[in-house]
Design goal:
Largest sheet: none
Oligomer: single chain
Radius of gyration: 17 Å
Number of domains: 1
CATH class: Mainly Alpha
Structural class: mainly alpha
Number of helices: 6
Amino acid sequence: MTHFSGLLIASCFGIFILYTAIKAIRLRHSEKRRLQVRFWLFIAFVVLVLVFGRWVAARSGRVVWRQTLTTNILGDLATIGGLILFIQSHRALGRNWSLEVVIQEKHELIEKGPYAYIRHPLYSGLLLMFLGMALYCGRRACIVVFVYCFFGVYLKSRMEERLLAKTFPAYSEYKRRTKALIPFIW
């Protein structure tokens, strides 16, 4: 089960990278140039985590919890769920999507799909994927990567919220009705 879980989690991250790359290629040309460097740096980070993460984690950092069937299944479910949430959120966002915090031409406030429940479901999906990896790995280094991603997502979501509040008068009502990252909780 351990080997299967590792392959499943790596496959989910591979699908995530491929999906995001295809969507980035479809962006308008001016948008592509702006995103190119950041996107490939992010891809390199994810690939390094996938390729070398387990090796580095096995040699740096103590085991916080041992791998069990339960941690493997929870890691698999979190990663698959995160990938599904990311893709569904991306589809609902449509042409409003960007890797940077910007208002697109003809930008709309999206309140359908996962956005009906949480304001940043793309980030929630990404965090679920990294949580799944941390659950599977069970080492301090993997937990540090998850915490690092959490704070990065939190800071970026705050920047987005400020921009969206300035752009859309209805955003304050939307913010009052929904939670930021975890439905009905936070």
